[in-house]
Structures are given as C-alpha cells and as structure tokens.
Amino acid sequence: MARFLIVFGIFGFIFQVHCSNQYDNYTLVRLHPTSTVELDLVRSFQDPSKEVSVLKESRGVNDTLDILVPPNKLKFVHDFANATGITLEVKNRNYGRTLESEYQRLPRRRVLRGFNLYGYNSFGDIQGYIEELANKYPSLVRLQDLGKSFEGRKMKLVKISSQPEANNPIIFVDAGIHSREWVAPAMAMYLINRLATDSDAMQIGGILDGVDWYILPVVNPDGYEYSRSSSNKRLWRKTRSKTSNSRCYGVDGNRNYGFKWAVSGVSSDPCHAETFAGSKAFSEPETRMVSSVMMDNRQRIKLYVSLHAYGQYLVYPWGYTGDYLPKQWKKLDSMAKGVSVAVQRAGGKPFKVMSAGKWYPAAGGSDDFAFGAAGIPYSYTMELTEGYEFTYPENLLSKVMPQFYEGFKEFGKRIKKEFGR
Ligand SMILES: *[C@@H]1O[C@H](CO)[C@@H](O)[C@H](O)[C@H]1NC(C)=O
Ligand SMILES: *[C@@H]1O[C@H](CO)[C@@H](O)[C@H](O)[C@H]1NC(C)=O
Ligand SMILES: *[C@@H]1O[C@H](CO)[C@@H](O)[C@H](O)[C@H]1NC(C)=O
Ligand SMILES: [Zn+2]
C-alpha cells in the first residue's frame, strides 16, 4: 500500500499535511510604518526572547518590516502594534506550510537534468555549468580558483572578457552571501549565461565591448546547500563556520567585512540567527576571498554589485551610517536610477534607490568595503524581487531575470562611457 502511494505521488501530499515543520503555525507579519515617527518605532522593534525572526527590515516610510512570529509570540507582536498604532498585516498564518510546499517542489531529484537556467540549482550543478562554459568558450570564459569555503567547497570566480589583454574596466558581481536568498545566485548564473552565449554580446556596442565581467555566483556555498537540505533549514542566512567557543554556527557574511566593522546594526551573539558579525572582521574564508578579488583588481574594478533578496531595492554606501552620504552620492544615485529605468522599460518593477544606511544602518557590508576600502567608485547592493519573501517561485524566474538583465546592460553602458578608453 505504501508503495502504491509513493508511486502515485500522494506521499508528498500526506507528508505535507501531517509532518510538522519547524515553522508550523508561524505567522508572517508585516508592520507598516506610515510616518517617520512610526518608522523609528518599527526600527526599535525587538523581541527580547529572540524567537521572532526578521525576514526584511524596513527601509523607509511605507516600507514594511516583515517578521516571522511563533505562535507563543503573536500576542507580544499584536500588543506592540496596538501600543504604537502601527498597522499590522497578517500575511500568512502558517509559513511552515509555505516552506514545506516549496521544498516539495525543489528540483533536487532532477539530478539527471543537470543545470536549469530558470531554476534553483544545487551548488554542484552550478559548478558543473560554469566549468562547461569555460571548456566550451575558452577564449571568452575563464575560471580563477579562489580557495575553499569553510566546509571545503571550491570557489571559482568566473571572468568573462572578449579582450582579456585590453585592461578594460571590470564590473564585479557577486551573489548568495545570504543562503536563503536563492534568487540571487539564480540571477548571477543567468547573467553568466547571457554574457557567454549571446551572439551580440561581443559586437561593437554589445555588453562585452570594452568592459570585462567578473562574477562569483555563490559566495556562501555551505549556507546555500544547508538551506536546500530541508524545509526546516530553508531560512538559514549565515555561513556555516563554527568556532570552539560557541555552540552556534555561522556568521552574517554581510556584516563581516573589514570596513567600519561592527559599528552599527550587528549582533555580537554567535547564536543570533541573522546579524552576528563574526568574532572579528574577515573571520570568514568566504568574505576574505571576495575582498581579495576586490583588492587584487582595485585599479580596474569600477563597479561592484552584490545580489541579494528580497524587496526591490538598489542601495549604495554608506551602509554603516545614515548620518551622512559619500560626497559622490549623486553619481551613485543617478546610475542606480538609470538602471531602474532600464529594468522598468523591460517590463520590470522599478527599484527603490537610496543609500543603504539611511533608514537601516548596518556595518561590515561588502558594498561599504568595496567603496570605502577598495576605492571602487560605484558600489551597490541589489535586492531582487518582492512579494514572495525568500520563496520566489521558480516559474517566475524566466519572466524577471531577462528584465534585470536589461539593468545590467545599462550598468555596462554607463561604466564603459565613464571609464572605457
Ligand atoms: C498547529 O496548529 C494546529 C491547529 O491549531 C495544531 O493542531 C498543531 O498541533 C499545531 N502545530 C504545532 C507544531 O504546534
Ligand atoms: C505613505 O502612504 C500614504 C498612504 O498611501 C501616503 O499618503 C503617503 O504620502 C506615503 N508617504 C511616503 C513618504 O511615501
Ligand atoms: C488594543 O488596545 C485597545 C485599547 O487599549 C484594546 O481595546 C484592544 O483590545 C487591543 N487589541 C489587541 C489586539 O490587543
Ligand atoms: Zn541579503
């Protein structure tokens, strides 16, 4: 009988209904600040017991703080909203079920299919695909070994250049420092695919004409694979490192960079699930590898983009403070707005453009390090997609990734115009 059920695919359904997920009965709540006073209150929201997890910070008035609330904390959150007058929206009464159903659809059993351009691939399939491209187009796509992740996964930088000897300006894109933000590595892989295979990319005026692209598609492969390993682990954000003096795993890689490290918006508690900054700056091998790429190529890298999810934002330094902006902020702002317009023209949603730290200061981010320490003149964090938290449906990737790609073309055009010879 059991065999019969498995054969007909009913097993998955039964599993979904009866097997409890860690997030069973957790409520996804959005707190909606409608004034600067309410925004300050939302920013001060804290659950002393640390059982409430923050999925997305609010980055301004009318921009929600999204939190995942266990059943025993629901009253606490309602009381907070009630006491402050902040609008509370219940988005999903059982987030565990949402994670479970996504996990059931995860193509981890499609081993034989290999890499799927419009899907969420395993780290192994991603590595396989970039090696395939490097073999197929050896004069265009080169791989540089960067070293190994904490758990020993090999990290390879993808360098795409039609004139590798020309000393062109470089655009450096990375993705996936935060494990659960699956859409980010998917977009990095889509970018690699288009750069390497579009017939017009190399033409005069094409995206590779006069600009080289360096892409690291999965900065945190250990965390990425961990978040794929079960629906209970789907929301893992940090790396998977462990030091002997703590029982907890992982560091928030995007709080670990050595520029104004830990001055704001971080936790010093290794058990903090979101923003533990590490025992020291660059404690993580993964962030050290990214910083080496930046420092080794600092003369030529003119633009750095770090891909994240979710909420459609394109933010620039400083991230560590909202008190002041870099003196070049207008150039940063105007390039970001140009990119947003290009994505919109392609049918996509506009990005909210602002300095990262304006409403939500957080130190130790890769964008601040690129700008402030490596001296890269344009540096951004790009938060992709909204409306689905971290579980962006796989079947929508083929719609949005080509739209985002138009934004990258715009980046390329502007970098060539300002820095090309
Ligand atoms: C979730 O709620 C349902 C209905 O109230 C209850 O039967 C179930 O035991 C709860 N699950 C957990 C893990 O608390
Ligand atoms: C926030 O939304 C309200 C209601 O839609 C609107 O009246 C207000 O202008 C918005 N404020 C900002 C800063 O966007
Ligand atoms: C919110 O506060 C009001 C007034 O203090 C009270 O009457 C109401 O029951 C509260 N609602 C909730 C959901 O706690
Ligand atoms: Zn992120």
UniProtKB/TrEMBL annotation:
This is Uncharacterized protein. It comes from Mythimna loreyi.
